[in-house]
Inverse folding.
């Protein structure tokens, strides 16, 4: 078809896609820089199947049905099976799929960077996380202090670390315990705390109430909290991580609880991931982290919304 | 019955037994947490705006709303009367419910009246209505002070600015969405 015969819609599409060119270049170079970081540190890049019979049973994460199975909501279970089989340092950059997630910062299909490391815990991953972001910034030739929507974002290490308890004391209208028991934790976190997190420096929010960490190890030092953290920058949730739970009995009990709650809420009850549970006793002490690649592109390209950082949104297909 | 994942701009739901329309809608979700739907809603009876946050477990009744073609009859003591064109039933709307639409209500105008549980709560006008100019000052040629428009009054009492050549006794088309002059009716 000659350019002259293009209709109005395809012309619009050309304009939209053309405007995304700098962001798509940044995105591609970012992914290459991430690969470079991990391969230099001797991590093995892994690909695990997208189509799985039993996604991780979590109350608030809904998998998409596909061909009698499910599209994975994260590569967590397969990557942990590799850890258990003696792969101590692995990473993956892959698409993940979650039913019904669509908003300013959400796509039902998004790109996750997930990495796991044996013989470390969540604190070790905080360090590595800082290291990785600084590495990619340098590789991309970006300054360590960026502008995001008129505000400065200073990515130089170290980044502050707050407990969830502290964040609630500082920003929330209700105390943490009350927020958890009245089931308002997510609401308060999303609307009262998140918007002010990560200015000017990114911040690690850690020690989540144990009820809110289905696959995390409980803290050895503090009671009632899990060794889980989230990374925020410029009000954007970038990553979630924890020291991995390696106790198969405890893990099964938590999965059963999540599945029971799913059933109670009329959600799809997934099959128990038996093969994963069987390998869990062999999993070394380790920690794992999932970082939203689209969100990192948003931060680095000064975009408040996720749409401009992907080639096509679901609505454009 | 709807659940939170059905929430969209324009969706009409019942809250405390009154109909609301979603005018703004935002989805968010902490990674491991529950989906949150932040909405702005307009009460379809009194127009009051409210903010609500819903979660994936929330469900809603749909509002029993119906639009019926009706003819405007007359107004009396602050109420505007309409007749259903199918069953000839009469309905009344208060002047608050009619709002600015009163500027365009002339006898026999066909409108859509919105019923909630069979009770009239509002109306939708046609986008364009033709109305008679009942009062217009003559335009003095060369008078550039007023620019290229002048005020006129229509049969409904509504005043608006029109081009200078519009005179008393002429019918004009008005856009009811903007309240502006569109053209002279030939």
């Amino acid at each position: 078809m000659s350019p002259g015969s293009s209709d109005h819609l395809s012309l619009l599409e050309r304009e939209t896609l053309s405007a995304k060119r700098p962001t798509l270049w940044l995105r591609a170079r970012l992914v290459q820089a991430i690969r470079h970081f991990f391969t230099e540190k001797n991590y093995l890049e892994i690909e695990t199947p997208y189509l799985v019979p039993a996604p991780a049973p979590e109350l608030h994460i809904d998998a998409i049905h596909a061909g009698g199975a499910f599209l994975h909501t994260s590569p967590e279970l397969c990557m942990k099976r590799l850890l258990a089989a003696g792969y101590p340092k692995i990473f993956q950059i892959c698409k993940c799929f979650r039913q019904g997630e669509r908003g300013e910062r959400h796509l039902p299909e998004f790109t996750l960077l997930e990495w796991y490391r044996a013989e470390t815990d969540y604190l070790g991953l905080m360090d590595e996380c800082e290291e990785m972001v600084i590495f990619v910034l340098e590789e991309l030739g970006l300054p360590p202090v960026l502008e995001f929507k008129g505000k400065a974002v200073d990515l130089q290490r170290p980044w502050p670390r707050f407990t969830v308890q502290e964040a609630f004391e500082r920003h929330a209208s209700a105390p943490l315990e009350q927020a958890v028991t009245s089931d308002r934790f997510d609401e308060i976190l999303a609307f009262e705390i998140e918007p002010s997190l990560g200015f000017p420096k990114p911040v690690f929010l850690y020690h989540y109430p144990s009820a809110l960490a289905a696959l995390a190890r409980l803290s050895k030092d503090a009671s009632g909290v899990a060794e889980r953290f989230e990374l925020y920058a410029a009000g954007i949730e970038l990553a979630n991580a924890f020291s991995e739970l390696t106790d198969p009995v405890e893990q099964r009990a938590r999965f059963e609880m999540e599945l029971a709650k799913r059933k109670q809420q009329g959600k799809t009850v997934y099959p128990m991931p038996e093969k994963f549970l069987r390998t869990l006793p062999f999993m070394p002490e380790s920690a794992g982290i999932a970082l939203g690649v689209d969100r990192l592109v948003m931060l680095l390209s000064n975009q408040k919304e996720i749409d401009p950082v992907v080639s096509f949104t679901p609505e454009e297909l | 019955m709807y659940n939170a994942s059905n929430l969209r701009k324009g969706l009409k739901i019942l809250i405390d037994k009154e109909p609301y329309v979603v005018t703004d809608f935002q989805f968010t979700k902490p990674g491991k947490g529950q989906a949150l739907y932040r909405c702005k809603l307009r009460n379809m009876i009194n127009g009051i705006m409210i903010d609500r946050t819903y979660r994936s477990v929330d469900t809603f009744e749909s509002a029993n709303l119906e639009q019926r073609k009706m003819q405007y009859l007359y107004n009396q003591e602050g109420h505007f009367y309409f007749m259903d064109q199918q069953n000839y039933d009469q309905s009344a709307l208060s002047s608050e419910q009619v709002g600015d639409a009163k500027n365009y209500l002339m006898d026999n105008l066909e409108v859509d009246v919105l019923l909630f549980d069979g009770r009239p709560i509002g109306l939708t006008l046609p986008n364009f209505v033709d109305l008679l100019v009942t009062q217009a000052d003559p335009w003095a040629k060369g008078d550039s002070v007023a620019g290229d428009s002048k005020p006129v009054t229509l049969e409904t009492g509504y005043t608006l600015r029109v081009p200078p050549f519009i005179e008393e006794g002429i019918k004009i088309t008005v856009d009811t969405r903007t309240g502006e002059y569109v053209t002279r009716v030939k």
